[in-house]
Amino acid sequence: METALKKSIKFSFVGASSRYIFQVLSMMVLARLLSPSEFGLLTSVMIVVGFGFLILQVGGASIVASSPVEDLGNNLSSAIYISLLFLLFYLFAVVVFFDQVSIFFSIEDKLFFSFMLISTVFRTFSGPLEGAYAARGRFKEIAKCEFYSYSFGYFFISCSLAYFGFGYWALGLAIFFQAALYLVLLKLGYKHEVFKVVKASLIHKNLKFGFGVLLARVASFFSSQGDNIIINKYMGSYELGVYGRAYQLMVVPTTFVGQVMNRVLIPKMSQESAESSRVLFFRFQLLAFIVSISIFLTILWKGNYFVRLVLGEGWGDLVPALTILSASIFYRLCFKFCESKIISGRKSRFLLYSNVIYAAATISFCFLMKDSGIVGVSAAVTLSTLLYSFTMLHFSYSKEKLSWHVKVVLLNTFYTLCFVTTSYFFGLVDFIL
Length: 433
Prior knowledge:
mainly alpha
């Protein structure tokens, strides 16, 4: 069983890491061809598009991945039907509130905005299909789909079109074709029937669970996009473009790790004992601590050199934000593991409670600290992430002995609080850098 788990993690990591590598490689090229303001425009559009990605999945991947193998086909069909239902509501809302959303997020290119909204439709089907692959342990196939979709659909298209002067449309087209290619590859590799006749009671059961996961994901969306919304509203596209690149370099990798864990651990934890998951948690926390403190110290020491290497000249303004965000890596890895445990137990209400607290903390802290620019927003995001990590830990392991883990968390808390508070209130980042 442990060997199978290692193989699953390996293949999932290969898929997620290839995705991140191609995104970083494209960012290294595009940062030299596009301006921070163009990146900022794309980020403002992706706030809305990302919300659509979230809504149309309706927890479909979690519904299918956490289902028993014998019920997989029916759960997959019901998850797709639920997603299609939400697609209708989503399209209706887009048509009715299109102008208001464009004005609120300062999106001037409405043609580009309309085109990007169409790409959300692909997620209606790819989420449940990905869950079906995970439930059957086909992580190698998922990795292949991710590799080909991001290498050809994202990296090649974005870099080629940007070189020929397409501007931010290069990234928009790359996101569109990556999502389309990923869905096509998933469907070609899945030979089982997708659209089955299922009972209404099953749809109701999965809708109840999926809607709980969806509400938690919506709260999570506002916690992850609250910083971008504040910057877009009170600063500008240049600051949003700079902060977005810092976030992509330092925070997005932990999101990929979380997706790997969700794919692999949700099916495993739904079948394992509490003691087995606790031992796995201890091992993961030790590894997460070593990795996070190493990255934090490296960025603190060589942040300027790292930014020049990856993005080139002209991006020095993001180094302070990048350094502060690196202090939150451990907590992001911690709560990603806790999310897998909660979802595997189908306790979506705990996920909802935690994410509501996280979203409220992120938006409140970012608003209160916005006068310090992207440095203040970065500090706010790090502090709210720390709070969310403790909340998730409480809901997922409150009845188990975690004395060893608490020591690790407290040690991380100490260095994070010291660095973030001194950086924000005394400008320590500027002094070091």
